Amino acid sequence: MAKVKMTTPLVEMDGDEMTRILWGMIKDELIIPFVDLKTEYYDLGLEYRNATNDQVTIDAANAIKKYGVGVKCATITPNAARMKEYDLKEMWKSPNGTIRAILDGTVFRAPIIVDPIKPYVRNWKKPITIARHAYGDIYRDVEMKVEGKGKCELVFTSEDGKEKRELIHNFDGAGVVLGMHNLDKSIESFARSCFNFALDTKQDLWFATKDTISKKYDHTFKDIFQEIFDKEYKNKFYEVGIEYFYTLIDDAVARVVKSEGGMIWACKNYDGDVMSDMVATAFGSLAMMTSVLVSPEGNYEYEAAHGTVQRHYYKHLKGEETSTNSMATIFAWSGALRKRGELDGNKELMDFADKLEKASIQTIEEGIMTKDLASLASMENVKAVNSEEFIKSIRERL
Ligand code: NAP
Ligand code: MG
């Protein structure tokens, strides 16, 4: 058959362990036979990151800025055990953190929904996408244990030496305090990424904080979102027929549970940390969770939300059979190819991305799935297959 043509490359970032094995199979079986694939390849596998003093990660992030679209395999974030295992020169930072810092992006996570896997929340029919603000709040706080009696204050000293003070508490005994911050600039780019992604995917955007209690801190988030919405997005939302909806965080939680899904839920850093795990679990499996980093300038990086599946990799190394779910990694590829097609006006490429996703979902809905899903599926005659058989079954349908 004639392969689908590509005009502009996408940035391909290879990774580690079991997902690196899946990466190769996905390309060989599901992409290269059908698409005249053009990528700029960066090897973010830990060995090569170590060899290049992590320069390869920085180069990959800059390439995403250049080409606008990237697809990334899961990678190891080194810890003490990995230092030994890979004989590392340094405990290199998380590649995702490095890329996010360079692109200044927001991460959107959404589950892949298939019929045999029923969400724990009965009425959820459509994916719920969580957008987590990835800067500040308690993740960059300063904390103190107070030993006994004394006064604790917030003091801001401006450049010209003027001081602004607020009493936090007059302690008459031991206790704890914390100071945290955020930046208008970071909240603004978070807001723009969320509004852009809502327009992109034609889904309503929900945002929630606790502004009634936190009248300056949380209220600033609410105000910045509202201001940017009114000035830059109101008309565009109206044209596309979607809504921006603000409410209190506790009200949002209640409404989300009662909803049928299909919205983007923008969360402050801590809320996003907690709610993304809740939503992922409630939809069934981390292996079915997709993730895309969207920068305020409109650069996109697609990946699976899960890690390198180390336990399966060690089985694979011992020559044992694995049944690792490649859905989220396949959807990272289809997401990136579709976006590439959109940016280049390449309809054929967009259609291919749709077909790849359809064939993958169809495979599971016909009862062929990896073990993680087989144990959750509410259907008869489920056939649990190994990593390779699953990808080959998708290819047959594709
Ligand atoms: P993980 O790779 O997400 O795997 C945790 C467990 O979840 C697995 O052992 C497996 O459970 C299950 N699982 C995850 N993905 C699966 C899939 N596709 N198919 C089937 N089962 C799946 O997390 P981890 O083991 O904590 O981390 C391993 C490495 O990944 C670490 O070095 C970490 O730094 C890295 N990591 C990278 C990213 C990223 O690049 N975005 C994200 C998270 C973690 P069973 O063992 O019960 O089968
Ligand atoms: Mg969490």
Automatic annotation (TrEMBL):
Q: Which SUPFAM superfamilies match?
A: Isocitrate/Isopropylmalate dehydrogenase-like (SSF53659)
Per its record, the protein catalyses: D-threo-isocitrate + NADP(+) = 2-oxoglutarate + CO2 + NADPH
* Assigned keywords, A-Z: Magnesium, Manganese, Metal-binding, NADP, Oxidoreductase, Tricarboxylic acid cycle
Q: Which cofactors are reported in the record for this sequence?
A: Mn(2+); Mg(2+)
Site positions (Critical for catalysis):
Y139, K210
Which SMART domains did the record assign? Iso_dh
**EC class name:** oxidoreductase
Specify which residues bind NADP(+) according to the UniProt entry for this protein. Answer: T75, I76, T77, R82, K258, G307, T308, V309, Q310, R311, H312, N325
Give residues annotated as binding D-threo-isocitrate: T77, S94, P95, N96, G97, T98, I99, R100, R109, R132
Q: Which GO terms describe its biological process?
A: isocitrate metabolic process; tricarboxylic acid cycle
Q: InterPro entries per the record?
A: IsoCit/isopropylmalate_DH_CS (IPR019818), Isocitrate_DH_NADP (IPR004790), IsoPropMal-DH-like_dom (IPR024084)
Entry EC no(s): 1.1.1.42
Its family remark reads: Belongs to the isocitrate and isopropylmalate dehydrogenases family.
Name of the protein: Isocitrate dehydrogenase [NADP]
